[in-house]
Amino acid sequence: xxxxxxxxxxxxxxxxxxxxxxxxxxxxxxxxxxGIGGSREARAHPPLPSGNCSSGNKPAxxxxxxxxxxxxxxxxxxxxxxxxxxPNVCHQLSRRAQGFFTRDAGVVQRxxxxxxxxxxxxxxxxxxxxxxxxxxxxxxxxxxxxxxxxYRCCVSSVASQPRKLYEMPKCPKSEKIEDALLWECPxxxxxxxxxxxxxxxxxxxxxxxxxxxxxxxxxxxxxxxLASYCKFRYLSWDTPQEVIAVKSAQNKGSALARQAGxxxxxxxxxxxxxxLPLSLIGILxxxxxxxxxxxxxxxxxxxxxxxxxxxxxRLYSFQAIAEQFMQQKLDLGCxxxxxxxxxxxGEAPFGIPCNIKITDTPPLLFEVSSLENAFQIGGHPWHxxxxxxxxxxxxxxxxxxxxxNSLAKxxxxxxxCCSLESDWIYFHPDASGRIIHVGPNQIKVLxxxxxxxxxxxxxxxxxxxxxxxxxxxKSENLFTVTSSGRLVKKKINLLDDDPEQxxxxxxxxxxxLDLLSVVAVTQIDTDGKAHLDFxxxxxxxxxxxxxxxxxxxxxxxxxxxxxxDLVLHIEQxxxxxxxxxxxxMVCDPGEEEETTSKSCGKKNR
Length: 605
Description:
The protein is mainly beta. Helix content is 10%, strand content 42%.
């Protein structure tokens, strides 16, 4: 459920303090950065995958934002969900019971999700706050499980009341889990152990161990010691559910070396693994002597992405680098002699040597310059989104063809808004090739299609627009008194994200139900009131609105997860207080009885 972002490819849903792969980070637009919680996700979020549907400041580990969106099958839940056709749930259940879908498991799944979507969106369905809890440590959510105490405690949110699944033994702070990803069994692959067919949590600890943990019992199924020559801190999917990248903290060098002006040539390390069975591809060294004065680097879909303080972004093939510069093939659990030392690869204290060291500049695939390294790839055919690398261009987005860098027709997108917070843009996580542009009072879904009579060029046009519920031309009256005692009235136009007007804060995509979920907030006196709206992903029609009972403070960091019949809100308050609000789908019995009595009355007549 949710955008997997905002985003896009699947990745671990981050808690507010996690520093992760920025694939869930959409491109920011115009606005003032003043530390107030913004509207970010998807995770994925993305599109971000997989982003992230969270709001808050961007990850401190990265200097910019980038996303790669690769096509996958469009979820078919919307294929029969046009604006005028409402599915008959009883008819679908009857057909399912008669065996109409037995030949194709995919058809059964799509039918079930179509039924669930109809139930979620019907008028009598409510979402009830069934559980609220608070914690002094970050809270994370992933596929029906809520994680507390740095993933040590796991609570299932699937039951009518959340229940504890497991709690791992306590450990010192130096051994806590710092980051985690959910691995789910691929369909149709033969795996060596029966436990491999169940989902696992791939976790990175503070003392450089990579663990595979059972999501049902908390048992450690596998463990790999990474290395002692650097501090690994971040986990991300290189290829979703297939290849993971473990990224180290940046090497700043000692304080004495920095005072002496001595720069460390190695910026960071990237350890790359195939998952299930866990097998090593290699550990890559990112060296400034090769790439120049870079500020960050990461992996996505087999592409090494390198960023510079000037706004330049360069792309290289990781496979080509590994083939050309791998010094020695290493296998986990095998004896190895490296640098005069012998040990077992993946076991302490030997760990895994850095076996991919680039000695010459690798072939460049693509480069582009963008403000704050903001860069995304997606669409059909391939296009990319950047902001021109000038501060005065902030909030202006250029959509260009990847093959020749040509600007698409109507490819300059700028949302006319005056607000403190930035608007943001990203490729739609449903892999339709569309683009979502979110501002404080409107959400534009744009489509990319061929120019008539010119198949070589593409154009951007509006698919639909979602508008905030506001009073038109609202302004405040300011009264002043002149020296003569005359009362003068002046009109002051409010900001587009004025807290007293309904403002969009989070936009996410529920891929299984094919719904856009939108959080809108209005400040009433001292309290902020928020509601979560479900919109048809194909037409933008409002299908359902759910009020959130808790107050929404726009200065806090927030995450919203919509996962089938569950809504979960995670809030980070000052002084490291985290709150979690769980909503579950219920059918209002009062409305059901009223509907039943009406239908019986009609029959009696």
